[in-house]
Amino acid sequence: MCGDRLDIPPRGIALHDLGAFSACQGRADRPEKLLGEHQRRVLLTIKGKAYIAGIYEHPTRHAPDKSTAQLHAEVAKGAIEDAGLTKADIDGYFCAGDAPGGAWPMVDYLGLKVRHIDSTETGGCSYLIHLGHAAEAIAAGKCSIALITLAGKPRTGPLPPRAAGAEVDFEAAYGATTHNAYGMCAMRHMHDYGTTSEQLAWIKVAASHHAQYNPHAMLKEVVTVEDVLNSPMISDPLHRMDCCVVTDGGGALIVTTPEIAKSLKKPLVRLIGQGEAMKGPRGGKDLDLTYSAGVWSGPRAFEEAGVTPKDIKYASIYDSFTITVLMQIEDLGFCKKGEGGKFVADGNLISGVGKLPFNTDGGGLCSNHPVNRGGMTKIIEAVRQLRGEAHPKVQVPNCDLAVAHGTGGLLGVRHAASTCILERA
User: Fold this and answer.
1) Residues 6+ away with beta carbon under 8 Å from 360
2) Lower CB count within 10 Å: N or C terminus of the chain?
3) Are 182 and 235 in contact (CB under 8 A)?
4) What is the CA radius of gyration of the chain?
5) Distance (Å, rounded) from C-alpha 206 to C-alpha 408?
6) C-beta atoms surrounding 306 within 10 Å
7) 333-365 as b/e, with b when 16 or more CB fall inside 10 Å?
């Protein structure tokens, strides 16, 4: 049974939400707590023990002539080549529910010989969790060069089936969709904190300012707040421009040891903190739609990294909808709960203008949201920023510390979250 006690709720969670906070967040008296604090941090942390040596984002947004497995192979090839390695070097493979047939068919299809596999499935944040798990496996000696892939064809092929849970017989009859589940979160946030549609629109505006410089972005046109508000209503209060694009494509990462990374010719980027968490309505008990599982994954990642939100130069924030961005910015501690609307307004997320440059590739709102899973692209753009390889018009000066964060599932129902803190080494 989950629901073990934790003493202090995260910032922004009221005392009456302690039940939701405690559920499924793990025990405070785990065995490692018996170690001395210094020993625990040295032995159990992944800080600095894994580097991202290769990245690749598929340039396509429309792939009627390719299979999903072929897209996986193409992004794998791209990431391996970016790292300056060969397929024979890979000894760990990580994939999620988008991989046709799962890990073992993909390992065979890709022609890999691996000694470690992980097929953790948590929707859009799977790949952020995979990055953390790859670091753990590398630190434990289970593998030395890990490949993580994402690919799919939601525009030109069937979507992967949604996972069915014990709740489906009780909830499916009410017609929950992705859009109205997020719409409920937005409406509740507006009710509780006075957030406005205009403030949400600024998130799309910022993404569009960045997308104009991305030759592969699906939507390159810069839009205004008025454009967003005048777009058709999809699920009140979310307009069409509050919603992400749907694209074919994918991406891949190579994660390796510090020693191997330093022997390659790419700029060094290392993972220094990672957290993961899950949140659900728990049968309606302690239900609060205004915060995500990021209230747990974020503090864990920042604590392990030894930094704070104020230290972050660039943020890759999952943007399935504008409300997703606003809630996660609050949950990660960039502002207080309820102040996200003011924080994102007036261009504050635009690179070179605002104090928190975000999603400088255009993000899921404008560029790419392959397989309805945006976590992979969040890592890739964060690495580009840390390498100094983002477009010159959006490159953050002296970018040495970045966060990549995402969710998987539905914010208004059940979801997971993962936060990764990356550093230029």
Assistant:
1) 210, 314, 351, 381, 384, 385, 390, 391, 394, 395, 396
2) N
3) yes
4) 20
5) 23
6) 13
7) bbbebebbbbbbbeebbbbeebebbbbbbbbbb
CB distance 246 to 29 below 8 Å: no
pLDDT digit string (tens) for 270-326? 999 999 999 988 877 878 999 999 999 999 999 999 999 999 999 999 999 999 999
Query: CA-CA distances (angstroms) from residue 30 to 34, 140, 192, 274?
Result: 8, 19, 36, 18
409 backbone φψ class: left, alpha, beta (φ>0; ψ -120 to 50): left
> Which tens digit of pLDDT belongs to each residue from 221-265?
999 999 999 999 999 999 999 999 999 999 999 999 999 999 999
Q: Are 419 and 297 in contact (CB under 8 A)?
A: yes
Separation of alpha carbons 402 and 317, rounded Å: 11
Cα–Cα distance between 342 and 90 in angstroms, integer?
Answer: 46
Return the structure tokens found at 209. Answer: 């300012």
Give the Cα separation of 102 and 416 in Å (integer): 20
